[in-house]
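Supplementary Text 2. Reproducibility record for the structural model of the 186-residue chain.

All settings were left at their defaults, and a single model was retained for analysis rather than an ensemble. We include the record here because the model underlies the residue-level annotations in Supplementary Table 4.
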Amino acid sequence: MIRKNPRGDLPRIHPSAFVDPTAILCGLVVVEENVFVGPYAVIRADEMNQEGEIEPIVIGAHSNIQDGVVIHSKSGAGVKIGQRTSIAHRAIVHGPCSVGNGVFVGFNSVLFNCRIDDGCVVRYNAVVDGVHLPRGFYVRSTERIGPETDLATLSQVSVDASEFSEDVARTNNELVHGYKRIQNEF
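Retained model, structure tokens:
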């Protein structure tokens, strides 16, 4: 479902993107080319700051927002998802938040008030809150990363983890083409 926010902003979706009919996109959302938005995802840019302003939620080209993902933002703050980035099933990305290019965010993970640079991997059920995660860092499953975390204790993304991330992005890009081809059949 594509709908306006109370301020009247409508999502802008590139014609090559695929948004599942069960997904909800509301307000100042920008979906770039060849993006996959899966079933029951919710991307909602509707909260304004005190001046009535809203920064956009931008989903970068060739990225995928999988089933049940929620992307929202507090008090008009922006959310930026980079290119070729995968946000896996039921993850929550809550702004203010910036996620770089080629990032993988695992199932049920939560990102809030953070910046995640290019090539990072956040595995399932992890929390990244209030921190800047530099390029190429690896967050293990169930780990909580915050301002008190010594980033020197984190690993760098391995070749296997990077290849897995690229495979997920590639697979979901293929889904875009397949669903676009049959979208008038359902």
